[in-house]
Structure formats: structure tokens, C-alpha cells
Design brief:
- By secondary structure, the protein is mostly beta strands.
- Helix content is 11%, strand content 34%.
- It has three helices and 28 strands.
- The chain has a twelve-stranded mixed sheet, covered by helices on one side. Strands 4, 6, 7, 9, 12, 15, 18, 20, 22, 24 and 26 form an eleven-stranded parallel sheet that branches.
Length: 339
Amino acid sequence: MRKFLFFERLKRAALLSLLVCVAGTAKSLAQTQVATLQHGEETTAFYGVNAFVEAHEAAESGDIITLSSGNFVPTDITKGITLRGAGVAVDTLAGTLPTVIGGDLSLEMEDESEILSIEGILFTNIVRYGYLMNPTFTRCNFTSIDIDFYGEWMHNAQFINCYIDTFYHVQAYSTQFVNCVVWNIFDINNVSPASFVNSILFDNQPYSGLLATNSIIVDGGFNHSSTCSFINCIGIKFGNDTAFGEGYAVNCGMYDGLSEVFENYDESTWNSFEEQFLLNDEIAMGFLGTDGTQVGIHGGPIPYSPYPNYMVRSNVTVAPRSTIDGQLNIEVEVIEEGE
């Protein structure tokens, strides 16, 4: 019970930091929300809290919807679109705030052959999946991922640089996590397996069908089956637990407690997600991954970042009133990719 309460406090501290960050910038987020819909060479803009809803309604498969910073009303995503936001954190250098979609929504394609791609969105409520093939989620934060209805599924999903609080994985098959942090994930098994690369997993039940490479497994006191494999991983145990259970472990290290692995660990300091999960010098330089970089989210193929790689809208200014001929002046400032 003590271990469970400790994980819950730690998890809530990290999640609260995300929500406090958003709440603390609420006044700034009051600027006009903008959604642009790119269909071939044609671009259409929508404004206000319902901009995403209107853009999705007008979109066709293959289109790109880009959201500015701000809070947007959700809508179920039923088309194979590319959805881009301004990121999940305040970027003081670029002058951008998060893109937040509040309220529950479902991801379910009208045609199973359509591919969904989402990047740079903070989802504060439940996101449900159903009939998704090869979706990609990059630099997104999720409060909860759940199935829409039993019998529906998600195949070959890839999560990159994502933070996930709770994931009901029972109908998700062959999911890959790359440089992600996952706190609670349920029902990883031989039927719905999952792989973790340079990720951090706070386990909370026994797993089978789990493959982890260059990752950090924080033990929740559960015994994983012999079908699990851990390659070049760090296990953080509490008490007599092994973190890897009966799984096949190769070139793995075992440490007692979070403070032996993470830099200057203190529960009270884990209030800024960007500063979390940094390894101490001994671990960062002394326990390298199979690619020669550090294990965990700051090494590997795609080191963790909450900021998108593409052009984002950093500022939107709307004139207080329309001109005499009925036009409303709107200025949109953008940051080019790479700035």
C-alpha cells in the first residue's frame, strides 16, 4: 500500500505540473484560436474555440489541420488527417504556448486504410481509440487513452516523445513507444504486445509480451512473465522486487530507488516536466544504451522534446472591430521550422 501511494503522489505531481502550467497561462491563451486547413494548394482558416471542430468537418482524408496555441473544443476524429499543434509546453524562446484540446473525444477512421497522425497536442480528457491502423502520435501528452467499445482495436500505433498518464491497452496491438514516459498501462500481453525504446515505464501490473530496450523500468511490485524481454535496461526496485520479474534480461542494471538513477531526485522538485527524468552523471555516462547514448528519454533515436519540428503559430492578433467595409483584420505570426 505504501508503494502504491508513493507512485500515486509522484504521478499526480507530474500530471499536476502540466495542468498548472496550462492554468497559469490561461489569460495568455485567451487570444483568438486559429485552425488552418490545408487541402492540396488551398488553405482555409477557422477562428475561435470551435475552430478545430469546423476544420475537421470541412477536411478530407490526407488534409493537414494546424492549430494555434490555445484551448479548443474537441470533436471525434474520423478522417485520416494530419493534426498539428503548437506543442505541449510553454516555449519561452519561441514565444509559444501549448495547444490544448479539452473534453473527451474518439479516434475512429471511417475507412480503416486511412492513416492518422497527431503531433504537439495536450489532451486533458479521455481519448478513445477504435479501428485505427498505423497511427502516429508525436510530442503529445495524454491524460487517459481508452478503448471506444470492446471489439474495436488499434494496430501498430507509434508514440514518440509522448507523456501518457493512463493507457488501457487491452485492444491495442503491437504498440511502440519511443522516448516516452508511461505511468499506468494496463493489459500488455502476448495478444496485445508492446515495445519500449528509450522510454520510462512505471509498471503497475504483471505483463507478458513486453519488449523493452534502453529503457527504465520502475518496479511496481509485480512479477512479469518469462515472455518479457529487457535489453540494456535499468530496473528501479523497491524492497526485494527485481523489476524484471521472470523476464529475459540482458545487460541490465538494478538500482534501489529513484534517487540512485535520477539527478537530484526529490519528490517536491518534480514540478516541471521539462526538468524531470534527467539521469545523474554516474548513470548517464556509465550505463549507456546499445547505440552509445544514455538510456531513458534523453538518449536514443529521438531525445525527448515537448516542442514540434514544424512551423507553428506563435501569436494571433485580432482587431477589436471590423473595418467600414465589413472586413476583420487578423495578424498571424509564425515561426519557421528550425528557428
